[in-house]
Amino acid sequence: MTLRIRKEKRDDYPIITEVLSLAFGRKNEGHLVERLRVNPSFLPELSIVAEIESSIIGHILFFPVSIVSGNVRLPSLALAPISVVPDYQGRGVGKELIEYGLKRSAELGSKSVIVLGHAAYYPRFGFRPASKWYIKAPFEVPDDAFLAMELVKNGLKDVSGTVEYPKEFDDV
């Protein structure tokens, strides 16, 4: 089983939507990615797939967000969503997608990433509670599930505020 990680292509769109639906057991996340692709802030380099033998089995998206404090808006990325089809979950595909995506995000100049996710999973990649930097979610969420990570040293130094997601996330 040779896993290949690469940027998505236009021909992949319907397959990615199906992968998201299979992974989440609903269509919301697939529709989210479809809507985010037409948002002017979409970064095609950060919509990434995992494939085995030319079959897409996973997807991850990093999307620009802002950390807002008063009139100050600082750029960051949201890791959302990540998906792996059920037959390949627990085999390291998600890990490969996250590591590749974090590396690519840093290469493109991003300083930090925010994720809403499992407190036991994301810290292995370097994520910590966002509250460490006085960063808050725009909605109620357990502190240990709203996480942030610096992609460069001091990438969140002197940063605080509330994460502002694009409107497309409102429907998830």
What does this structure look like?
With 172 residues, this protein is of the alpha+beta class. It is 22% helix and 33% strand. It has a single domain (3-171), classed as Gcn5-related N-acetyltransferase (GNAT) (Aminopeptidase, 3-Layer(aba) Sandwich), CATH 3.40.630.30. It has helices at residues 13-24, 28-37, 93-107; strands spanning 3-7, 47-52, 55-69, 72-84, 112-116, 128-129, 135-136, 146-150, 161-164. A hairpin with a 2-residue loop joins strand 3 and strand 4 (72-84). Helix 1 packs antiparallel against helix 2. The chain is globular and about 45 Å long. It starts with a strand and ends in an 8-residue tail after the last strand.
Descriptors:
single chain, 172 residues, alpha+beta, Aminopeptidase, nine-stranded mixed beta sheet, 3 helices, 22% helix, 33% strand, globular
CATH architecture: 3-Layer(aba) Sandwich
Radius of gyration (CA) equals 15 Å
Largest sheet: 9 strands, mixed
CATH superfamily descriptor: Gcn5-related N-acetyltransferase (GNAT)
Number of domains: 1
Proportion of residues in extended strands: 25-35%
Structural class: alpha+beta
Q: What is the CATH top level name?
A: Alpha Beta
The name of the CATH topology is Aminopeptidase
How would you sum up the global shape? globular
Q: In percent, how helical is the residue content?
A: 10-25%
Spans where pLDDT lies below 50 across 5 or more residues:
none
